[in-house]
Amino acid sequence: MNDKLKQLYQSVILQHNNQPFRYEKREGCEYTLDAYNPLCGDHFQLYFDLEDGKVSRISFHGYGCAISKASTSVMVKHLEGQSLERALALCRAFEAVAQPETPAAEGEVTEDFEAFAAAREFPGRLKCATLSWEEMECFLEEKVER
């Protein structure tokens, strides 16, 4: 892993793990998704509404390792206010960055996403990085493609 990637990985993971974006339970939201990895115990609830075809008032709560918590925080930060199609594209772009066999999506990759490219070097941590993104991607695919 090169030094720039290592530094980015550490700063993004630490920042979002210690001060997660919209880390709160929400009552009365339109949708609640359950992102759970039974192998390691990471477990997050994703709370959000859909308003005018956009993701709104998204937040999350739960527990997991620093990588999964930070990744979920990054997801919440980037999906707020996005159209369903754009949110789906961002989910796919994140997966492309984190997973070595997936081609990268041009123009969608942010520095926050690049920090998780380091997970490629630790195959056991890929699920940690992609857990919440995959759950949201499944939901969005169902909404967009019907």
Number of strands: 3
Number of helices: 5
Mean pLDDT over the residues: 88
Give the CA-based shape.
Answer: globular
How far is it from the N-terminal to the C-terminal residue, by CA?
A: 41 Å
Describe this entry's structure for a reader.
With 146 residues, the protein is of the alpha+beta class. It has one domain: Sufe protein. Chain: A. Helix content is 47%, strand content 17%. The chain has 5 helices and 3 strands. Helix 3 (84-98) packs antiparallel against helix 5. The longest helix has 19 residues, at 126-144. It is globular, with a radius of gyration of 14 Å. The chain starts with a helix and ends with a helix.
Short description:
The chain is of the alpha+beta class and 146 residues long.
Ordered list of secondary-structure elements with their pairings:
Elements: H1 3-18, E1 31-36, E2 43-51, E3 54-63, H2 66-79, H3 84-98, H4 111-115, H5 126-144
Antiparallel strand pairs: 1-2, 2-3
Helix pairs in contact: 1-2, 2-5, 3-5
Key attributes of the depicted protein:
about 150 residues; Sufe protein. Chain: A; globular
